[in-house]
Amino acid sequence: MLDAIIKGGTVVTPQGAAVMDLAIQDGKIAALSHPGLLTDDAARVIDASGKIVLPGGIEPHTHIGIPVPERWAGHPEVFTQPPEAATRAAAFGGVTTLLDFSGSLPNSPEEIASNDSIMNQLESRKQAFLGHSYTDFAYHHILAGEVSPKTIGEIGEAVQAGQASFKIFTTFAGRVPYGHLQAIFQEVGKQGGIMAVHAEDDDMVTYMEEKLKREGRDQGYNLHLVHSNISEDVSFRKVIRMAEHAEVGIYFVHVTAKEGVVAVGEARSRGLPVYGEALHNYLEFTCDDYRKPNGTKIHTYPAIKYASDRDTLKLGLEDGRISTTATDEYTTYKDVKFWGKTIESVCGGHNGIETRVPVSFTKFVSQGGMSLTRFADVIATNAAKILGLYPQKGVIAPGSDADLVLIDPSVRKTLTLDDLHADSDYSIWEGFECEGYPVMTMLRGKVMVENGVLQGSSYDGRWLKRKVAPGALARPVC
Ligand SMILES: [Zn+2]
């Protein structure tokens, strides 16, 4: 007897979207068939008529249960929401896998990043999530500051253990100097890992911070003048050039400017394994919105820019230059998120993990006419391919994990806080009109959320061992 059959839904596979039945056994997709051909001999038969059956959302960029810097929070001992709350919200929003971070980022140049081994830091992050997660999870490992030869020597062991991606910043206190960065790129490339890069030009950022402070223009609504278009242009091109020399794949987190989209597109057209991510708040808002009351609540670093940048990001997701959507999930309460008012004190990140899939569905599918196959790519499949989870995750195919989200395209919902499940008291999406919404989320064959009711357990989420396919590191595959 099968564990479950999902009947009559529009099932989205790499080959297209069609009405099919889907059989689930032992947490995996066992079979896909034309409607009516599967036996009804299953523990549960789910009628998905009128629904769209997609691979469960993969959220490639979250910051869960970590300390918020005092300069952003106004006081010490503040943390972003814990795994239990963040992954619960994720499950309600159709997400079945997320990538957070291991290792830590120093909050000042004086504060030295942990000297503990990569494997120990990874283990302690795993322990923070195990037993507290409604989604599967993995981590990009952060390398910060002047990374020691000892740490660089540990990268190979970590990749072998399934730790496929490493994160660096080219600005902020944890900035990696370019010499060290080249050494990291070479080693990660050699070991078959991939780099997740937060790229900004630190000299330009620092110069503009000082200039705006000197001129009395350091209000938060000027953040886009600090974290600027030209900074993204210059830093993306520098990182791409270094990566080309080191023969390493690059995943640019939060592409924010049209210049970034163009730089990624040019690198890809030269055959380089370069991938870009767009955050869903950057697909809606512009820097004009910063000027509204508490307008910097929409802010996530680097900075939300102009309408032409927003429109180019959307175009990039449609034409393939940008590969993934993400949130930079970093949920606090509004006393923290709304506290900082200057270019140095506005809190980064936002309460977003639950809204990415429905907001993207509304914008791209319901309103934008994007194909369902491309939609699956940008919410799940591409992240799985780039970050080493494919085909276990991110695709509806026999043998893959039965991670699914069912979207009802007929649901019309104006988002209010009551619709959301984070440990927070604000959402930048209050008032957003969703056209289509997740109605069921399934993790490895187990129903986690059904019709707005939590069914899963926080013991269900597992850490995922990852390995990026060599092809995805040789040329752009998605
Ligand atoms: Zn981030």
Shape: globular
Q: Helical content, roughly?
A: 25-40%
**C-alpha Rg (nearest Å):** 21 Å
- Unreliably modeled segments: none
Domain module tally? 2
Strand portion: 15-25%
State the distance separating the first and last CA atoms.
Answer: 37 Å
Largest sheet: 9 strands, mixed
Mean pLDDT: 97
CATH architecture annotation name of the largest domain: Alpha-Beta Barrel
Output the CATH topology of the largest domain. TIM Barrel
How many strands in all?
17
Helix-strand category? alpha/beta
Produce the secondary structure layout.
Layout: E1 2-13, E2 16-25, E3 28-33, E4 42-47, E5 52-55, E6 57-59, H1 70-73, H2 83-92, E7 95-102, H3 118-129, E8 136-142, H4 149-152, H5 155-160, E9 165-169, H6 178-191, E10 194-198, H7 202-214, H8 223-226, H9 229-246, E11 249-252, H10 258-269, E12 274-279, H11 307-319, E13 324-326, H12 334-337, H13 356-366, H14 372-387, E14 404-414, E15 433-443, E16 446-450, E17 453-454, H15 470-474
Parallel strand pairs: 1-4, 1-5, 6-7, 7-8, 8-9, 9-10, 10-11, 11-12, 12-13
Antiparallel strand pairs: 1-2, 2-3, 5-14, 14-15, 15-16, 16-17
Helix pairs in contact: 6-9, 9-10, 10-11
Bound molecules: zinc ion.
Molecular structure report:
By secondary structure, the chain is α/β, with parallel strands linked by helices. 31% of the residues lie in helices and 23% in strands. It folds into two domains: 2-55 and 402-454, Urease, subunit C, domain 1; 57-390, Metal-dependent hydrolases (TIM Barrel, Alpha-Beta Barrel). The chain has helices spanning 70-73, 83-92, 118-129, 149-152, 155-160, 178-191, 202-214, 223-226, 229-246, 258-269, 307-319, 334-337, 356-366, 372-387, 470-474; strands at residues 2-13, 16-25, 28-33, 42-47, 52-55, 57-59, 95-102, 136-142, 165-169, 194-198, 249-252, 274-279, 324-326, 404-414, 433-443, 446-450, 453-454. α10 (258-269) links the parallel β11 (249-252) and β12. The radius of gyration is 21 Å and the shape is globular. The chain starts with a strand and ends with a helix. Zinc ion binds next to loops.
